[in-house]
Amino acid sequence: MIDLTIVIVNYNGADYIAGCIESINNSQDSLEKEIVIIDNKSQDSSLDVIKSLLRPNIRLICNKENVGFSAANNQGIKIANGKFVFLLNNDTILKSDCLQILKDYFETEEELGGLAPQLLNEDETIQFYGSVLSHWRYRGKKPVSMSFLSGAAFFTTKSILDKIGGLDENFFFYNEDIDLCMQIKKLGLKLIYYPPAKLIHYGGKATATRKAASIIEGYRGGLYLVSKHYPKWVYQLYKRVLMLDVGPRLMVARLKKNEEYCHAYKSVIEIVREEKIIGRVI
Q1: Chain segment 224-279, per-residue pLDDT in tens
Q2: Cα–Cα–Cα angle for 139, 129, 214, nearest 5°?
Q3: Considering 54, 125, 157, 176, which has the largest number of Cβ atoms within 10 A of its Cβ?
Q4: Could you tell me the residue ranges of all domains in the chain?
C-alpha cells in the first residue's frame, strides 16, 4: 500500500486540469502517491491535455457517459492503492507543502474522519463556505472541528471510505459532500478544517456552462439529503419551504423571459410535487 491516492473527477476542465496535475507533480513531500483521474465524457480538449501530462503514477479512466460526480469518485476510490485518499476538484492548485501537512496532521490526530485544507480564491483571499455566521471559523490558523467540510478538497482514509461505502451515487453533483460528512460523523469520527494546509480553488468551473442543470440537481439533491437523514415531518416541512423559495424565482424568470431558468424552476416544482428525488433527473 502506498501513502496517498488523489482522486480527481474531470468534466470539461481543459482550462485548469493541467495546473491541478502540475501542482501535484511539483508538490514538496515525501509521500509515495498516485493520481487517479476520471473523465466524465468531457466535450472539450480535456483528454488531450491530461494525456500530455500522464506519468507512470497517473491513471486515467475515460467514462463513455457522464455518470455524475459521486459515481466517478467511487470509481477512483475503488481502485485506490493509498492508505489515504484525497478527493480533489480539478479546478484547484496545491501549495507545495499542502499534501505533507495534511498527511502529517491526520496521523497525529485521534478519531479523525475527514480533514480539509484552507481554500483560497484566485487572489489568495480566504474562500468561505457554509453559513455566513460560521465564516469567522475560517480566519484563524489553528485546527477547527467542523460539522461540514467542502468536497472540493477532502482528505481521509481508504478504510473510512470503504466503511461508509463511498459516496452516495443518488447525488449526481452537489450535496454529496454534506452527505459524506454526515456519514463520517455517524461513525463517531471528527471533521477538521486545517488552515496550515492551503490550496487555490477557482470554484464552479465544472458547472458554469450547466446553470439550469445545476439548479435542478441542487434542489433535488437537497430534497434527497433531507429525506435520507431527517424525520419525515422535517422532509415535509422542507418541501413547503422549498416551494416558497422556487415559486418567486420562477415568476422572476418569466418576467425576464429567461427560458432556461423557467425550465429549471418548473422542473424543480415537478420534482417536489411528484417526489422524484431518487436518481438522476437531468
Answers
A1: 999 999 999 999 999 999 999 999 999 999 999 999 999 999 999 999 999 888 86
A2: 160
A3: 176
A4: 2-201, 211-274
106: left (phi over 0), alpha (psi -120 to 50) or beta: alpha
Q: CATH number for the 2-201 domain, one of 3.90.550.10, 3.40.50.620, 1.20.1070.10, 3.90.226.10?
A: 3.90.550.10
Strand partners, 126: 120
Mean per-residue pLDDT over the chain, rounded: 93
Calculate ∠ Cα 256-262-266, nearest 5°: 150
The pLDDT assigned to 133 comes to 72
Residue 60 φ/ψ, nearest 5 degrees: -120, 125
Could you read off the pLDDT of 29-69 as tens digits, one per residue?
Answer: 999 999 999 999 999 999 999 999 999 999 999 999 999 99
Handedness of CA 217, 223, 113, 200 (dihedral sign): positive
- What is the SS3 assignment for 64? coil
Q: Which residues pair with 228 in a beta bridge?
A: none
pTM as predicted? 0.93
Handedness of CA 125, 129, 133, 135 (dihedral sign): negative
